[in-house]
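Quick start: read one record
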Amino acid sequence: MDEKGVSMEHTPVKVVADKASRNTPGRVANSRQSNTIIACINAIGKSMPPMIIVKGKTEKFLRGFNVLEGPVGSKWTYQQNTWTEDILGVEWFKGVFLAHCGEERPRLIILDGHHSHETIGIINAARKENILLLCPTSSHHAFVVSIR
């Protein structure tokens, strides 16, 4: 599981113009705004639906996106800076991971050391659901939250 900031704008194709042209019309919007996508893939390459965090203060900011045409099962939410905050990490864990990880237990999930992955809400939910959390904090150290 990891999160990544991405732009929803596509990379423009090459535009052919006279070398002396000073203003060549762009083919994409001028927005440099990025959104965050939380994704999770298992060891055999099967992915869960993503959680997409758009910039906004209220749910009305989701109206600017065609959420019905997004990836099947994706969860859309908003946050003022599009960052993954603690509450959104818990929302992803409960609303996406637990909903799609299957019934077999115990399970192991590998998370990076981002603060939104190391919250009491996720740890308590993982213990309740018999999920092991592996959180490498550097290339040499890691902590594991056991279910016992």
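The two ends are 23 Å apart (CA to CA).
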